[in-house]
Structures are given as C-alpha cells and as structure tokens.
Design goal:
This protein is 40% helix and 13% strand. The chain is α/β, with parallel strands linked by helices and 425 residues long. It has 3 domains: 187 residues, Aconitase, domain 3 (2-Layer Sandwich), CATH 3.30.499; 101 residues, no CATH class; 120 residues, Aconitase, domain 3 (2-Layer Sandwich). The chain has a 5-stranded parallel beta sheet with strand order 12-11-10-13-14, sandwiched between helices.
Length: 425
C-alpha cells in the first residue's frame, strides 16, 4: 500500500484511536482488493441502522451502549472506541419507524436500538436522512465525485445517473471512510472500469414504471457485474423509472452501473456505439424476456391479496401525490393492509400537502425511516407490490411465498378490492 503522510499518521494513531481503527480496517480491505492506495472522499452513505440479528446485539452488547455497538459492529473492534466527529460528509440509511414497532422485524427492541444509533450518528456528525435514496434528500454527488456508498439501489444511481464514483461498500468500509475521509482506489473509481461490457437491445415500449422494473430485473439476472449499455429506449427515464431500474437490477443481480444511450452522463455517443456494437456481446430484451421476468416475480397461488407494500426504494414526492389521488374518498378493503414507505423529508411535504392524510383516511399507513423488506409478515399472506426489489426479497426476508408484482394502479386496486387483477398486456 502506498500511503500519504496523512494516511500514515492516521494508521499510526496520531489522529486518535477512532481514525487509527478505521484506517486499519481500510488498509486490510484495500489490500484484499488489490488496491495500491486510497482516494479522498467527502461523500459517504452508511448503513448505520441495519441490524438483522437482534439476538446477536443482546448477546454482545447487552447494555445497548451506542459507542460499544459502533465499535464492535461497525469498526470490528473489541476495544470500545469513542468517535469524536466524522471527517467526511456522511448520511445515514434506514433505521426503524418508531410509530409502528410491531409491524417491523425486531419489534420494540430494534426500534430502541436504532433510536439510540440515530442519536449516536447525530452526535458524531452524520446527517440522519434515514433513507435508501439519499439523493432525494440532500446527498447529491456531482460528476466525477468519489463517494463511499452503501445500499444496493443507491449505488447504480450514484454511478450511472449522477456520475459519482462508488463501489459496493458495506457498513464497515463506509463507516471507516466516514471517519477517515478515504476510500480504496479501485473498481468504479477508475475510468477504465466504468465502460460498458454488454449491449442490451431494447425492443419493448418503456412508457410505464413497471417496464423499468421488469427490464432491470431481467438484465440484472443475466449479466452479473457487467456494465450494460441500454440501446433503443423509447421513453425519457424520469426519476421514478430510473429508481425502479436501479433497484430491480441490483436485486436480481449485482448491477452497480449502467449506461443509457442518449440519457446518462457517461454513455457512449451514437457514433461510439457504431464502433462498440461490432465488438461487444448483445443481450436482447424483447417481449419474451419481459414475460420471463414477469413470471419470475408473480408466483402466487391465490388471487386474494392480504398486504400491499409500496415504496421500495422510498417513494418519490410524485408517487406520494399520485397514490393520494388514487385513494381520495375511497376505503381500503377490510381484509387488506396497505403500507407506503418514504423518506422523512418527502413525508414532511406529504404531511403538509395532505397526501399522508388522504392515504391514512383511506386506511393505509405512511411510514418513514423504514422498509417493507423488514416488515413482520405471516408467511401465509399474499403480498402485492409495484417494486420488483420488494417482491424479490420478501420470500427470503419475511417468508412470504405468494407475491404479485404489477403497476401502482394494479396494487391500489388490489388494496381496495382485496383481489389481484393485474396482468401482463
């Protein structure tokens, strides 16, 4: 490893124990990756609230002291390390919604843990956005900015749409980057690793958000870590469509970056595509592949619907307004639960402008700081969602085997009628 004088000083403990522990972690990480050095970062998004194993916390840190939790679970340190302030601008990922502990896995216990960690993050200078989509709430890197982000759907958004540069970071590496302002120089931080590896020839009308879910889900499952170049897309990819593409591709595969010719900042030009097309493999995406993705996501044996979950990734303001309009003056079926998740900043606007009230009066629940993937569902329930990521994960995270995927309108209709009527037209 080639360390700068500042990096060497942190490693030797001359800037305190916390930065020393963080630098030790990063050096081991970088050496394992084959990185020769580090790059400065002032943009980190970290999973400070994800604790999937509550019994482990009870066993290892029965006091629930946040300094001890951070030391052992974030910095892999048996020694309790007190972090003064993070060095890089850092935002937090999802915690737990404090109003509905019984709905979320881990219940009151994990709500308490995450509340403690939220206060801890505030104390050390982490901005508590509490969202999987930090770009909606104020963490918006610019073209070429080196970042250290966690969360599967946020990473391709950062790389592909914003032109920021981040690899798939985990809790440990991102937290260490927050403390040191450093991240290993490898992978998508380097120009040569950001070029497309496979052309996706799109022969489907991409006018609806559902289509972006299906395309991302199919392509992600086919190409692994390769960077796709999407060609011949006939619709402008707005925020909600892009979020769907990012989340679906990361769920079914490991899509960390993509290019859309004519739309994303680092995509090849049409002239460049004429040359690339002669050397890169081509993956067709037509009606046959679209149906394959749809059938993988829809595998319920019943048309009854018990639960509808919307907002994965966190719903945009446009989506909140849209479903409030769909539900105004109507009532959710008595046998159905409707959950809508969004980030706290969007919810504040939704509260102010009456969208939350319209959803609540219809019988739905609007929740911030959380994700439906971590809800507590009876495995016999039938779940419907407009998110391919949600439908992909809940069989594993919640044991729900009967799932329906479709448009937002189809999901709202299921919430109102208790029946799934969606189809692939």
């Amino acid at each position: 490893m080639k360390l700068t004088p500042n990096e060497q000083a942190m490693l030797e403990g001359r800037e305190g124990v916390a930065r020393q522990k963080a630098m030790e972690l990063l050096v081991g990480y970088a050496e394992g990756l084959g990185a020769e050095g580090f790059v400065d970062t002032n943009n980190v998004a970290v999973l400070t609230g994800l604790f999937p194993y509550p019994d482990l916390i009870r066993e290892i840190v029965p006091s629930l002291d946040p300094d001890e939790i951070a030391s052992k679970f974030f910095l892999n340190s048996d020694e309790i390390v007190v972090v003064d302030k993070v060095k890089a601008f850092t935002t937090s990922h999802i915690y737990r919604n404090q109003d509905y502990p019984q709905i979320q896995q881990g219940g009151e216990f994990l709500c308490k843990v995450t509340k403690n960690m939220e206060q801890y993050c505030k104390r050390i200078g982490i901005v508590n956005l509490a969202t999987c989509s930090p770009y909606q709430s104020g963490n918006l890197p610019v073209m070429g900015e080196h970042c250290a982000w966690t969360e599967s759907s946020a990473i391709p958004f950062c790389n592909s749409i914003l032109g920021g540069r981040t690899n798939i970071e985990g809790l440990h590496s991102a937290f260490a980057s927050a403390i040191t302002g450093k991240t290993p120089l490898w992978g998508l931080h380097l120009d040569e690793n950001r070029v497309g590896k496979i052309i996706v020839d799109v022969a489907v009308d991409m006018g609806d958000i559902k289509e972006w879910n299906l395309m991302g889900y199919y392509v992600g499952g086919q190409i692994g870590l390769d960077i796709p170049i999407y060609m011949n897309i006939n619709a402008v990819p707005d925020l909600t469509r892009i979020m769907a593409l990012c989340a679906a591709g990361a769920a079914s595969g490991s899509t960390v970056m993509f290019h859309i010719v004519g739309h994303t900042p680092e995509a090849p030009s049409s002239d460049e595509m004429d040359k690339l097309g002669k050397g890169l493999p081509i993956l067709p995406y037509a009606l046959e592949q679209r149906r394959e993705a749809y059938e993988r996501l829809n595998h319920s044996t019943r048309d009854d619907v018990d639960v509808v979950v919307l907002g994965c990734p966190h719903y945009t303001l446009e989506r909140m307004k849209a479903i409030a309009g769909m539900l105004e003056g109507k009532k959710i079926h008595p046998n159905v639960e409707l959950f809508v998740t969004t980030c706290r900043m969007i919810k504040a606007i939704a509260d102010r402008d009456g969208y939350t009230e319209a959803i609540s009066e219809a019988g739905g629940k609007v929740m911030d700081d959380t994700c439906g993937i971590f809800f507590e569902f009876n495995s016999s329930k039938v779940l419907a969602s407009d998110s391919a990521k949600m439908v992909h994960y809940v069989p594993m995270t919640a044991g729900v085997k009967n799932t329906w995927f479709g448009t937002t309108e189809e999901c709202i209709d299921a919430a109102l009628t208790g029946k799934w009527k969606g189809e692939l037209t």
